[in-house]
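Workshop exercise sheet. Pairs work together: one partner reads the sequence aloud, the other fills in the structure field after running the prediction. Swap roles for the next sheet.
Pair: D.N. / O.F.
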Amino acid sequence: MRILSVMTQVETAGAQAVAIDLHRAFKRRGIESKLVFLYRKDQLAFPQNDYECCVEGQPRGLGAMQVFSRLRRVWRDFAPDVVLAHTWYSINYCALGKISGLPGLMLPVHHNLYGIYPASSRLFDRLCRRIGVYPRELAIAEAVDRSLPHVRIPRAIVPNGQNLQPSPLSKQEARAVFGLPSDIFLVGNIGRLVEQKNQMFLVELLARVPPVHLVILGRGELRDALLSRAEALGVKDRLTILPGIVREQVPDILAALDLFALPSLEEGQSIAMLEALGLGVPFIGNDVPTISDVLNTGNGSAGIVLPLALDRWQEEITRLVSSPAALEQLATAACAQGQRFSVDTMVDRYLDVAKNSFRPAV
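Structure field:
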């Protein structure tokens, strides 16, 4: 089987990590695999560079035609059996490729709730559904699946997986690497600095909790707003925003933390969450289905889920700061649950769906 995977932009983010992990796992299993990004946004992300980019930098105007021309050429030359299109613009570009006669079964992979897709993307996607471009489609979580249009296209849910190995660094060594304070309770968050990720909630929380330090790993449009608000609240000295590191350093930053916090307004299925859980970092997150579903072990919870109420989060974090035993219990539960979401299981499921997609749907 020859598999072409298409992702929108190169940057250190969850869907991109999934595409990279899938591509590398396919190759380890002897499958002919090619990964193509439509454009490069972050020069530091994924330095192994075992993929291709259609263009450097975000395309504007007629640059979209150059992207499609390059993608079409790579697609035609590779002649895949299956095309995995990750995220909405890649789905649109790949659908256009199929309409233009390119080979292979196209399987759209939905990483986000359908409602956040741009209106133009949804419009084209619905047209493609009507004319039968997709033989089958995939969603990374039940909540994502429920958000998709109700049409007669077979669907499969394929949860994300993670394969991070623990950092060799101690907590104090890891903090030293990133210039973080060594003697204070450290709360961390990883994600793009955008409204959806809701890091502003954590900045507001800083003014309410006992002495803790907040470190956010990510880039985005809200960086200045986060720093300005922290200064206005008098907590700027307890906030560190790391602009970006290569993915191979993520275990090191996780090793530095006492608690991982995810107040996102909505998620598909957060890779940062799965990686934190897998490495046994105590976890607290917003009570939305794509977070609480992962934390539900069937015998309890692998983390703390709370509605976005500052008083509730303040109370819980204050309790954890003074209770090493509670943190240890959370760490143990997190690690056990995180190991259920492995890359090998994810790859098995993708391959199963791909093979079954060649068969007529019943």
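Discussion prompt: The first strand starts at residue 2 and ends at 10. What would you look at next?
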